[in-house]
Description:
Blueprint: H1 2-28, E1 36-39, E2 41-43, E3 55-61, H2 87-104, E4 108-115, H3 126-133, E5 138-150, E6 158-168, E7 174-179, E8 196-203, E9 210-217, H4 225-243, E10 247-253, E11 256-257, H5 261-264, E12 276-277, E13 288-290, E14 298-299, E15 314-315, E16 318-322, E17 326-333, E18 346-352
Amino acid sequence: MKKVIRAVLIVLLVLVIAAGAFLAWLTVTEYKPGETEEVSVISQGKTKAVSQDSINIVSWNIGYCGLGKNESFVMDGGSGSGKPQSREVMTSYYDGIEKTLAAQNADICILQEVDSDSYRSYNLNEVSSLQNDLDAPDSAYALNYSCRFVPYPWPPMGKVNCGILTLSDYEVDEAERISLPCPFKWPLRIANLKRCLLVSRIKLEDTDKELVIVNLHLEAYDDGEGKAAQTAELIDLLAEEYDKGNYVIAGGDFNQSFPGSLDAWPIIDDETWMPGVLDDSALPEGWSFASDIETPSCRLLNKPYDSENQTNQYYVIDGFIISPNVEVTSVKTIDAGFEYSDHNPVSLSVKLD
């Protein structure tokens, strides 16, 4: 009996040492971006002039080409680990996303959850693939998730390199990554997202003003304080840019319900994931939200998607914030049927006053 107990204790000691070494390795290699970092603008030299009377922007959380109609995800109450069952399935999602975006013929695309080298998306560099396949004249990419090995869920997600991507037919003069507050403490922080804003500046002809495009993906699985802090910092930045005389458009996945959308798409079960709530009162005077509450922009990943299932949970958490000198001419959620991502793209048309 003593030998058995000793063997068990040795095994437990080895496991504790291994777990400690693994945690130490993740800590040492943790992604720690600066508060503000310059982002390289990739240019193919075929940009067009900005028409201030008509600018078309599409925002889409593409779910790293891994969260299409066949998927569920454990963090949403499903059973999936976040990785499609095969490279072929993932590739079919990518092809559908690329074709859907190409069909929009947008001047600017702001995309979230774009993997550059991740185990969950079979190490496809979605950034360069989309840059090339969409023939984007200018583009900028900022990491908001980078970890050598994410140990959860099960099977483990493994290596992740993911971020937000802005593609522009207009010349992007410069771009920068601005860090947002992280609500998680060590050790949860190590393998978690480091949220940020990707700010792209487009100079306008015959004026010293800029069109400032802010691509964002705010906190999802926090207690709500993280989303609130990130939203407050976002609004402060937007107001600062407007005070400079610039035209400002911020868009992406807010992980918060847009005003009026909960009436259209109510929460069915409050035991499932629930977004935060955006409030018009949070915006400075003259600013506005732009969203389409007639069509949901996101679905809950608690099961594979079946459009006929009456228990599907939908949300409107994707859209835009618009400065007072920008006039919205249309905003529409494109009903892609959640075929290729758990989000639908949102199309915005504006003119600059």
